Each structure stands twice: as structure tokens, then as C-alpha cells.
Description:
The chain is of the alpha+beta class. It is built from eight helices and six strands, in the order E-H-E-E-E-E-E-H-H-H-H-H-H-H. The protein folds into two domains: about 10-105, no CATH class; about 110-200, no CATH class.
Amino acid sequence: MAEGFLTSFVNVSRVQPIKDLDEYGAILDGWLTVLSRLGFHARHLSIYGTLIPWRRNGVEGLTLRFRHLDLTLGDIVLLWNTDHPDRLAVDLGTGLERLAWARTRKHWYDLVYGRFAQSAPPTTLDAIRTATLLLGHGITPAARGAGGITRRVIGAIAPNDARMGVSAMVRAAFDYWSLFGELRVPWPTVTCLMEDEARR
């Protein structure tokens, strides 16, 4: 995993239909105000991209990215229906972890994995973090469907790391995800499911 990227993250977004470009501009201006209140000074913010529309499956759009100093934070997309160009929508998004990274300028792995940052390879730590979220929501390993994704994610955990035990890392990831919503499966059960699958 490259710095700045995660398999799972807390999505900060605003998606809504809009009537015209003025409303699009107002949403972008409002977002810049939010960033300013979070400590991202306006003089260090920039917006870049191309005004050449892209097209996919009956939808066209323009994607502009916003960054603070040298770090891209996210994007704002203007969308419209190809057959009905008056039907507009805006999709603004970033990740909470990326905002924290840009704001604190901490080392990425220390920010995301805390005290476990040096305990295992980033691929394993990312897999444990994501598998905790999936298993915590009751998405157990299976041959296909959503469970297939859980199985694939757990498969990225290095066998040696699974043998050392993952309960402390699972607990930390579980506590983090619980800040944003209740997980249905308790963390000890998540740990057992993950370790059992990793040993398969």
C-alpha cells in the first residue's frame, strides 16, 4: 500500500442534485470554508483539473481536484445526464484519514496504524483494518459475493503475522470503526473469524 491510500476509510462526501452552475460554485465555496475552519489556510488551497468532460454509461462530468500545499485532499465532480443535460448533480468527496494526514503532516503509517505501524507490513495492517470492518458488520468469508471480498481481504494477511495473533490489532481497528457506527459482531468474535480464515 502506498502512503495516502487505504482499502477502507471514512468517506466524507456530499452528493446531491443541483439546479445550475451557481449552486455548484456555492457548494465548492462552502467546502473551502469548511477546510479553512479545519486549519487549511485558503492561500495554501488550490483546485486543478481539466474542463474537458468525460463520459461513462450515459453520464458526463467534470472532475476537479483540490489540494493543500502539495497533497491532494479529494475531488468535486459535476455530473449530468447525457440525454438530459439539465439534470445536474454534484459529488464532493475526500477521506477523513487523508484530511487528518494533511492537517497533521504525521507519517502516514503512524497516523493510520498507531502503535502497530512497525509491527507488521502495511499490506497486513490494511487487511486487518478492513477485515475488522467487514466482519464487524457480519460479512463473513464466503466463496462469492460480499463474503468473497472478506475472504480476499483476509487472504492478504501474511501467514506469519496471523500466527503471531491479531487480537490487539483487531481491537484497535474495532475501536476506530466504532467511532463512526455500531459494529454488530463483538471484537473477540471478529478476531476468531479472522484467525480461522487466515489459517485456511
